[in-house]
Amino acid sequence: MGRELRWSGRQQPAAQAEQIDWNSYSVSTDLALEAHQIFSPEHGGAIPGVKTSSEELDGITVTRLVIEDAVGSKIMGKMEGNYLTFEVPGLRYKDPDLQKRVAEKLAEELKRFVSLPEQATVLVIGLGNRKVTPDSLGPLVCDNLFVTRHLFDHMPELVEQGGYRPVAAVAPGVLGITGVETSEIVHGIVKKIKPDLVIAVDALAARSLERVNTTIQVADVGISPGAGVGNKRKGLNKKTLGVPVVAIGVPTVVDAVTISSDAMDLIVQRLEQDVPGNGMTKLFSSFDEGEKKQLIFELLQPLGQNLMVTPKEVDTFVEDLAVVLANGLNVALHDAIKMEDASLFTH
Length: 347
Known about the structure:
- This protein is about 35% helix and about 20% strand.
- It starts with a strand and ends in a 14-residue tail after the last helix.
- With about 350 residues, it is an alpha/beta fold.
- The strands form 2 sheets. Strands 3, 4, 5, 6, 7, 8, 9, 10 and 11 form a 9-stranded mixed beta sheet that branches. The chain has a two-stranded antiparallel sheet with strand order 1-2.
- It has 13 helices and 11 strands.
- A hairpin with a 2-residue loop joins strand 3 and strand 4 (about 60-65).
- This is Germination protease.
- Its EC number is 3.4.24.78.
């Protein structure tokens, strides 16, 4: 970095900072839309090999993002494929009408996103740990799904009128509880029931606090369970499972590095407003990303370094979002279920 850095009351040579693996403390995101917003300014607002389009309707912003080639994939750090993002800030205010509109829009877009024959079998995987509230989204969605695969074999009279698709749902738990990799459990189920499509639902990590519990991402590239909190497991995708995998996720946490970084920027802005040209503003403004990460690292080290943070109302948010996602999936997967009746199938 070219100079010695001083904070926490001690001196640390810049050369020592270069020995730290900063990737462990990088400000990352599971959301392709956020990655695009982070890296597009470096490329004049348009990343090569990436296309985006957005539309807004009654408080819901839908963005379609396509990573077309390896160039765009490398820049964004995301796999090639299609990403669909719903931004709904109003989801934080427990508005039943808005939740219904979001579920309806999700169902509408899912039908376009995934084209399946009427009798195609769908397996929904609820990833996460139901005992950890911010990570319980996937299991809660499974709890609220209308599963029908067994009915086709044991009670065909209930589905013989048509409009229903064979749907199964499983919440396999996490490695720390089961002792078995999630991918191994899912692979075994896929091998046995041979679904035409796997839908994986999981909680994600966001870069911005504003997106926590307000954003839904749908992607056709599969998912790596635990990636958002730096705990990557073997991915669930077409290559590993042999069938198409659609991932649906909602960010429920943001890491402490993000909060610290944002706080530093806000402090600089506020100081410059109150006392223009002050020395503290000049000092903080002179930090490059490496120096900022070193400062954050030293501050977080006594607290366990990389903390994950979630709002105190996360239990209510997750329960509401699980119902929204389940309603959207129920309507998208079963033509016989209409949105006005979707609540009959959720708990």
